[in-house]
Write a structure and sequence with these properties.
Arc Repressor Mutant, subunit A; 6 helices; alpha+beta; 3-stranded antiparallel beta sheet; about 120 residues; elongated
């Protein structure tokens, strides 16, 4: 039987300082991560790590039908994960926060790298 890991008051204090008054931010993060945790949306987000994309390009890259793609993009947009702008007849999508590119580079490296 393994001995229990001792409690660390310093860790508890650090976590309390980091998250103690952050309940709303934690809930927002959890909801955003829940929306991202779908295979089709992960494909979309991985494609966006390369930069802005039109709906037509995303349809080509992901293999999703435009109606399905639009529904997924709407969910990502409603959560503030992606932004959309219009240019002539095109809707162009990008990450709302460029730091998301780093997150999806990590996702690619962890789950789609060699040996996976």
């Amino acid at each position: 039987m393994n001995a229990p890991v001792p409690r660390c008051d310093a860790l508890q204090e650090e976590l309390s300082q980091m998250f103690g008054s952050q309940e709303a931010n934690l809930n927002r993060a959890a909801q955003s991560l829940k929306v991202m945790a779908h295979p089709a949306r992960l494909k979309i987000l991985c494609a966006l790590r390369m930069g802005e994309q039109t709906v037509q390009n995303l349809e080509f890259y992901t293999g999703l039908l435009q109606t399905t793609l639009s529904q997924h993009l709407g969910q990502l947009r409603n959560r503030g994960i992606v932004d959309c702008r219009r240019e002539a007849n095109y809707s162009i999508y990008r990450f709302a926060d460029e730091r998301m590119v780093e997150l999806f580079e990590l996702v690619k490296d962890i789950y789609c790298g060699p040996g996976q």
